[in-house]
Specification:
Helix content is 69%, strand content 4%. The protein is mainly α and 316 residues long. Keywords: Signal.
């Protein structure tokens, strides 16, 4: 009888430790993500910037702006403005007329507008990534708290069971056979509780049809989740360096965040979702954080570009 009671307790403990959490309120919060307004970007490959080597760039401009700034200028679509701007500022041209001065002001406004607009778009994309990261981390924290609560209960149960067995076998039960039976039962019970603590991995169903990580991993020609210039920036590569998107994937793999040979991991992170444990959710949140950092760094490059453009006047 005692063995069957202990066995049932162990079974219930193990099921409690491994069963997915089904909380209707939490489920609704998970589904109703407010991290994006379901922005869908529509463009074709033809709408992406042409590679810098394949377009005409003013010779003087190539000498005045760094290669990195020229790349960013091309990425946000202001090369044509800069070509004309550089030509008008060139000292070897005829004296500036009023019309040319007005055109310089127009070009400066157009260039500033494109840089500021690109900065706003970067902030918008980064804010979605940051929000999604925080949302995933909250769910992971919730699971971790549930695990900790159950682990505390299992620990107390093991202590109480062990103490009770020691008291009973230490003199309360005089019959040797009964005492041995109790000792074995409590030993099995403690082992079962220890096993339950070992397998105390709470799970939760978490689905994500809008999956930015999937586009990063699969690398389609265009992405409906990224604006065209950011998608170009992530996929641009030359003979000196690989595409930033590929570099991000390589780092995920090198640091053990993903296993490209594990199909279930690829399906979980880069598919529509499934059953997650807390560690997997934390890992997913880290992946969002790393992607957000790389995209947000584009703002520093915009700042460098703006500074180099401002210096064009002093160089002429």
């Amino acid at each position: 009888m005692r063995k069957s009671v202990v066995g049932c307790f162990i079974t219930i403990s193990l099921l409690g430790a491994c069963a997915p959490i089904k909380d209707a309120t939490l489920h609704n919060q998970i589904i109703a993500s407010k991290c994006n307004q379901q922005n869908q970007y529509r463009y074709t490959v033809a709408d992406l910037p042409t590679a810098l080597d394949d377009i005409a760039v003013d010779t003087a401009l190539r000498h005045k702006l760094s290669a990195g700034s020229l790349h960013i200028a091309n990425t946000i679509g202001i090369i044509n403005y800069l070509n004309e701007y550089s030509a008008l500022l060139n000292k070897q041209t005829t004296p500036l007329t009023m019309d040319k001065r007005m055109r310089i002001l127009e070009l400066e406004q157009a260039i500033d507008h494109q840089i500021n607009n690109a900065s706003l778009v970067i902030s918008a994309v980064s804010s979605e990534l940051d929000c999604e990261e925080e949302r995933i981390s909250q769910i992971a924290h919730y699971l971790t708290e549930k695990q900790g609560s159950l682990e505390s209960k299992l620990t107390i149960g093991a202590i109480v069971l062990g103490a009770s067995g020691a008291i009973l076998t230490g003199g309360v039960i005089k019959n040797d056979k009964a005492s041995n039976a109790v000792g074995i039962s409590t030993g099995i019970g403690e082992a079962g509780l220890g096993l339950a603590m070992l397998f105390n991995k709470r799970k939760i169903e978490f689905y994500h049809q809008r999956n930015i990580l999937r586009d990063i991993y699969e690398g389609p020609a265009v992405s409906s989740l990224f604006p065209s210039f950011i998608w170009y920036y992530l996929n641009y590569e030359d003979k000196n360096q690989p595409a930033l998107r590929k570099d991000i994937i390589d780092k995920w793999s090198q640091f053990g965040q993903i296993d490209q040979d594990a199909l279930h991991i690829s399906s979980l992170y880069f598919g529509d979702g499934g059953v997650y444990i807390a560690d997997e959710l934390n890992n997913r949140a880290d992946m969002y954080d790393q992607l957000e950092s790389q995209i947000y760094l584009l703002k520093q490059k915009l700042m460098t570009l703006a500074a180099e453009i401002d210096s064009l006047k002093s160089l002429n």
